Amino acid sequence: MPLPWEALLPFALTTIMISAAGTLYSASQRFQNLGKPPRYGIDSWDDMMMKRDKLLTGHVRGQSVS
């Protein structure tokens, strides 16, 4: 039995909305982290360095390599 064409419109809208929400969430995370990817597995050393960076630059992701 073929797929009714009426089912494609809600499927496409749902797919587009989920994709847009994921993209906007990712962009929001990057914007909040000064364009850097999110940190994972933060230990006590990283926490201490983030506090230091916050005091020096005003943002926990303020340090850069350059």
* First and last CA, distance: 61 Å
How would you describe the oligomerization state of the chains in this entry?
single chain
Mean pLDDT: 88
How many structural domains does the protein architecture include?
A: 2
The total of helices stands at 2
Let me know the number of strands.
Answer: 0
Helix content: 55-70%
Shape: rod-shaped
The major beta sheet can be summarized as: none
Report the order of strands and helices: HH
Low-confidence stretches: none
Which structural class best describes the helix and strand composition?
A: mainly alpha
What is the strand content?
Answer: under 5%
* Radius of gyration over C-alpha positions, nearest whole angstrom: 20 Å
Main location: mitochondrion
Membrane topology: Single-pass membrane protein
Subcellular location: Mitochondrion inner membrane
Family: Belongs to the complex I NDUFA1 subunit family.
Describe the protein in words.
- The protein is mainly α and 66 residues long.
- Helices cover 59% and strands 0% of the residues.
- The chain contains two helices and no strands.
- The radius of gyration is 20 Å and the shape is rod-shaped.
- The mean pLDDT is 88.
Key traits:
single chain; 66 residues; mainly alpha; 2 domains; 2 helices; rod-shaped
Structure, briefly:
With 66 residues, the protein is an all-alpha fold. It has two domains: 1-32; 40-66, no CATH class. The protein is built from two helices and no strands.
